Each structure stands twice: as C-alpha cells, then as structure tokens.
Amino acid sequence: MPDRLSALDASFLYLEDQATPMHVGGVAVFRRPKAGFDYDGLVALIEQRLPLVPRYRQRVAQVPGRLARPVWVDDPGFDVTYHVRRSALPRPGSDSQLYDLVARLLARPLDQTRPLWEAYLVEGLAGGHVALITKTHLALVDGIRTIDFGQVILEPDPHPTEPDPDEEPWVPRRLPGPTRLLLDAVTETVHRPAEVVENVRAAIADATATTRKVTGVLGTLVSAIGVATRPAPAGPLSATVGKARRYAVARARLDDLRGVRARHGGTVNDVVLAVVSGALRAWLLSRGEQLTSATTVRALVPLAVRDGGADGTVPGMLGNQVSPQLVDLPVGEPNPFVRLQHISHALRPHGDSGRSVAASALLRVGGFAPPTLHSLGARAAASVAGRIFTVVVTNVPGPQVPLYAGTARMTAMFPAMPLTKNQALAIGVTSYDGGVFFGLTGDRAAMSDVDALARMLEESVEELLAAVKA
Q: Which of 198, 210, 256, 398 lies 20 to 30 Å (CA to CA) from residue 190?
C-alpha cells in the first residue's frame, strides 16, 4: 500500500505559501576540533545516519486530480550534496552576520519536488566556531515514523566519521506513475466515497478553501485549548506577515531559572513564560504602547501530553501528543513575581490533569530530541492558525551534557520557529548543557527591532534574579 500523507501532514503543504513557509529551523554552534570539521565530514556524517531517518530520502508525489492525499515516494534523483550546503561569513564572522544569514534562509520555502529538508554548514565564525543551520518541513517530522535528523547526528561522545563497510548502498524504489497513483487512490477509497467527493471538491476549490477543508479535521486539537477561542488582544504583534524575516537570539543559565522556580514555585516552563512576559512588556513600552494592569499578550504554548493508551515511562514518548495551550501573558503587570504567579495559575490545570509529561521524561527520549519536539510544537501551533493568538512559545528541555557531531562539540542550539499569516513573532527555547537558548523569528517589517526584544529577554531574567536576591 502507498505511504500516504495524513490529513494533518497534507495540510501543512496546502497551508504553505511564499510568505509563510512551513518549516522549522535550528542554529547549532560547534567548536571546531583540532582535526577540523569541514563540509566533507558533515556530508559523510549525515550520509551515515540517513538510514535512521529514511523519509529524508523521500519526496511528496501528488495524486492526479487530487483524488487522494499525496504519498511519500523515494526520490530517484536524491543527492545529499543538494540538501547539505556550504556557506561562509567574512572572517571573523560576527553573530549578527550569522543571524542575518539565518533570517534569509528561513524566508525561503523548501522545494516540494525534493525531500523537504536542507542543512547549511557556515564557516568563518569568530573564535574558531562553525554553525549548522537546518530547515525541516512540518509535513516531514511527525515524531512517530520520522524524527528530525538532528536527533541522530549528535552523540554524547566524539566519534570520527568512518564509513561502514557492511552498509548496503541505498537503492530507491521505483517511482509510481500517474496511473499507479490513481489506481491506489481508487482502491483505498472505494469503500469511502465521501472522501473521494471531498478530494475532488478540494482540487476544484481555490487554495484557501482547500486549506479549510483539510484542516477541518483538526477540531479535536482546537477543543483541547485551555482558553476560550476568542480573538487575541490587538497589538503590534498582530500583523499580516510578509516574505522577509529577522532572527535574533538570547541566552540564560538554567540554574538561574531553576533558582527562581525553587524560590517561587511552579515549573521551569512557567519561569520561561514569565521571562517572555517581562521582555514583551519592556518591548511594548519601548514602542510607546499604553499598558494597563489588564493588558495581555495571547501566547500559544505547545505542551506534551500523554496519549490515553501510551506508556508514560518512555521510550514511546515521541508517540505521545503535543497539545496547544493558550496562555494570556500578563504584560501589563509590573511585578515580575506576580506575572509568574499568573502564569503558574493559568497552567496549573495542565499539570493537574494527569496527562502532563515531565521534563525529566522528555530527557529520556533517545538522542538530542529538542529539534523533533520543536517540530511537533510548530505542527500543533500551525494546526490552530488564526487570530486567536499572537505569539508562539515552544520550550523543550535538552540534555545537560555536551554533545558532539562527529568530533565537533556543540556549544549552543537555537530553535527557529515558523510564522503563520497573522503572527509576527515566534520564540523557541531549548535548554542544553547548563544553558537556555532563545531563538526569535520575526516578520522583517513588523519586528524590525527583534534584536532589541532579544536583549530584553536577558534583562527580564536579570530582573527576576535581582528580585530573588532582594
């Protein structure tokens, strides 16, 4: 039987346009080892690990007339060097130059006629560092059949990349022709005539109507949202996005956030959202916005939940669900600890539900799971696209030990989340090896000062720490 895309996976292809590419990115920074870490070594490492993520050598094939959803097929022209590319900054490359490059790469949609991922090795960074920028389509990573390849190329010990002499060369399966695709579609749907009619209607309708039909299956996700689906409060973050992006980062220490949690309760995720609230408050004031004690910013916060029939002990963690939760961030509140208390109160029902997944459980997922979990969070956010939220915040815990790609030690990992049509800002957060790394993706016009917001995130952490010490 054909490997057909789910309705959710297909919706991400239909939702995509030039202004809203549906991929998740990441920026990993490595310390170049004495033995070097070059393009050829990276290509060899990725080629070695591709058998662990076979979908990375597959592309999407559309069924003629859209009588059924697309299918995954082996790409007969797969060329790893098309997907793994090389770039460089003028030496010594600065952080701002790197983030400008990230913003340009994030703005470009992936080629849907090829496997839906790209990776860029960026050389020339100051201090003997290199960066790896990745882009992976939301349709590709579902956390069950396919994980992000970033999860399989990082290991807790440095290992030189060596070819496996026993590995069989990959041979793509024969590409099905239009007739085969049609016959498979008819065979699958002969007992479901309503689906055939709906697929034909989707093919005739315009792209907007198609998207609405496909995403109509997502009502169960919307019903799981913890805040009534009223429109989000208006403000500068509610903007129709264009094609261009800006990207910025911020850093914090995990022990500092844990210290705030130990003093005032809640979870580290609550503290992260309080940090974001404080930064958004400062940013809105810097733009001359009038704030009252009741002013809020609606955030969509994807949270891991246990599947009703799943074993919560993991290793099946990636088979669990990610539930989109809406949280009104209290940006009008001047006291940082009152902001934290508001957020902890808003998220307490999730923790008390018995379905929440502890950070310690997520850390038991094999490999470096944050790229996969950020993808699942972005999928949950994109499935609830609309005007009911203005910012997405994904926070994923990572291992607190150093990891290596080959022999190169990773020193930082910044997520890069996608934007939807009416969402000018997305924030991804990953903790790793004692650090907390914020990646901010903004619309270039609406968030021209996203770098200022990044600085305000770090200042918001300092505000909480100063209040703890007072």
A: 210
Whose CA is closest to 368, among 393, 395, 405? 405
* Rounded distance between C-alpha atoms, residue 390 and residue 235, angstroms: 9
- Six-digit token string for 212: 């609405």
How far, in Å, are 54, 87, 139, 172, 362 from residue 48 at the CA level? 12, 22, 23, 16, 26
Q: How is the chain split into domains, by residue range?
A: 219-469
Query: In angstroms, what is the C-alpha Rg of the chain?
Result: 22
Distance CA 12, CA 68 (A): 15
- Amino acid present at 97: Q
* The pLDDT value given to residue 47: 93
Backbone angles phi, psi at 192, to 5 degrees: -130, 70
CATH number of 219-469: 3.30.559.30
In one-letter notation, the amino acid at residue 317 is M
Residue 371: half-sphere exposure toward Cβ, Cα within 13 Å:
29
pLDDT-derived band at 165 (thresholds 50, 70, 90) equals: low
353 alpha carbon, distance to own chain's centre? 25
- How far is residue 466 CA from its own chain's centroid? 32
CB distance 225 to 324 below 8 Å = yes
Report the C-alpha gap between 108 and 89 in whole angstroms: 19
State the first-to-last Cα distance of the chain, in angstroms, to the nearest integer. Answer: 65
pLDDT tier for residue 35 given thresholds of 50, 70 and 90: confident
87-118: pLDDT as tens digits: 999 989 999 999 999 999 999 999 999 999 99
Nearest to 148 by CA among 9, 79, 52, 58: 52
